[in-house]
């Protein structure tokens, strides 16, 4: 990557620098290659390190770079297409489901989730944790919130803890007649737990897909799936609708 001083430009310096860096990534670097450290890059381009970080963060958000724990900043591979449409009117855990059960616990859900599920204040629900892998790398982590009312016969099932317990909860959930589901997608930042599971740094850009499953005239389960924004390109099937919401809405998180 050659030395290039940035002249005065009408656009923000970090944005112009992002363009210059993007061109260099195309011509001088290969996928997986580690970039020089921030001090060297800032010196070569004659910018402050804060400006450089802004440009690098933007390139990471666009999927051009990856910050890898203990490695540094590397050139990212092309984004992989990950379908989030799936089969309509299908509960989590069905045969065509790409997710793998990891664990299950009982906990009080976040306030926004509790409001969707219409559970009592402080009421615990089943929290199923699942993961998704694509092309050999972790691409998403999910928390699936299921109230006891959705799996009333679960206590009669002999299911140990861990992944087996999670699968038992999902099997019981599938006894309900699924009436419909909806999804919303938002840009967010990785929480510490999600970052560790996805091999990302806390605060890294992610895509949060919230899915509500309806049965018996109510929300019977809520899924919060966190996808890596640097490697994932979310796709929807032909029946998936895109909704645009204006104004501020509280997200279930």
TrEMBL record:
Keywords for the protein's UniProt record, in alphabetical order: DNA-binding, Transcription, Transcription regulation
One protein family per Pfam: GntR
Location of the HTH gntR-type domain: 11-78
Domain of life: Bacteria
Database matches in SMART domains: HTH_GNTR, UTRA
Matches recorded under InterPro entries: Bact_HTH_transcr_reg, Chorismate_lyase_/UTRA_dom_sf, Tscrpt_reg_HTH_GntR, UTRA, WH-like_DNA-bd_sf, WH_DNA-bd_sf
UniProt cross-references to SUPFAM superfamilies, sorted A to Z: Chorismate lyase-like, Winged helix' DNA-binding domain
Keyword Transcription recorded: yes
Coiled-coil regions, chain positions: none
Name of the protein described by the UniProt record: GntR family transcriptional regulator
